[in-house]
Write a structure and sequence with these properties.
oxidoreductase activity, oxidoreductase, 274 residues, alpha/beta, single chain, NAD(P)-bd_dom_sf, SDR_fam, seven-stranded parallel β-sheet, Rossmann fold
């Protein structure tokens, strides 16, 4: 019998898309750090397996099935997690999908791209909207949006995915501006190229031999959970390239240049948009 201790103050997390891939790695990695976890996913069987693995790490864990694009299912899931854990200190918006084909815009199905935007934008909007009142009632918290380099640079394919991640980057910056003063820090985090079912199915990764370790993602999220990177709220990190230590070493330059954020570049001091 596994004895699960009471949930420690300031050590709870809700993770979406937690039944496999990066979400599962985050659930287990945070549990290893003593963080109690609420896990959301659609696959009940796989979710139960991850919940059991977390509980064997002697932390409180609860799994709730929900479609992140459904307002009603999200509201019920967040209520259940908050009721089980008493509070939510960290939210990781990890659930996401990508187009089925790696082609330019006119060679893709617009409905496929729109489904990607629904899951990758509407999902984080609904989950964050449900979680933040719980965070604010508890004195604050941290939100991590799993993003991608495609949210910050153009590409010849995956139009809907890139649009969704660009919107998610703006969402991160809006939350930072609106709620940092109320104790909520928000971050954009690209996991890099982690070897998952989604990434290995993408033609752009065929033949890839080097992958970002899932532990690198866990380490950055763990540092965020611990509050080590709060001064860099609203900014973009990349696992496998950034570490908490490297980001803190760049702290003054990042802040001075207002770097690592979605901004409009101007033509110089005489540009009327400056």
């Amino acid at each position: 019998m596994v004895v699960v201790p009471e949930v420690p103050a300031g050590r709870t997390a809700l993770i979406t898309g937690a039944s496999r891939g990066i979400g599962r790695a985050l659930a287990l990695g945070l549990a290893d750090r003593g963080v109690a976890v609420g896990l959301l996913a659609r696959d009940r069987e796989r979710l139960d397996e991850v919940v059991a693995e977390c509980r064997h790490r002697r932390v409180a864990a609860v799994g709730v099935t929900a479609d992140v694009t459904s307002r009603e299912e999200v509201a019920a899931a967040v209520e259940a997690v908050a009721g089980h854990l008493d509070r939510i200190d960290l939210l990781v918006n990890n659930a996401g999908i990508i187009e089925r084909v790696e082609r330019p815009f006119l060679d893709t199905d617009v409905e496929d791209s729109w489904r990607v935007i629904e899951v990758d934008v509407r999902g984080p909007l609904l989950v964050t909207h449900a979680v933040m009142p719980v965070m604010l009632a508890g004195g604050g918290g941290r939100v991590v949006n799993l993003n991608s380099g495609l949210g910050y640079r153009p590409a010849p394919y995956y139009t809907g995915y890139a649009m969704a991640k660009g919107a998610l980057a703006r969402f991160t910056s809006m939350l930072d501006v609106q709620y940092r003063g109320q104790g909520i820090a928000t971050f954009d985090l690209s996991p890099g190229h982690v070897e998952t079912g989604m990434t290995t199915a993408m033609p752009m990764h065929v033949g890839r031999t080097t992958w970002t370790a899932a532990t690198d993602v866990v380490d950055l999220v763990g540092a965020i959970s611990d509050g080590r990177l709060d001064e860099l709220s609203g900014r973009f990190f990349r696992a496998g390239t950034d570490t908490a230590e490297s980001l803190l070493a760049l702290r003054e330059e990042i802040l001075a240049r207002d770097a690592r954020a979605l901004r409009l570049s101007t033509a110089g001091p005489d540009d009327p948009l400056g």
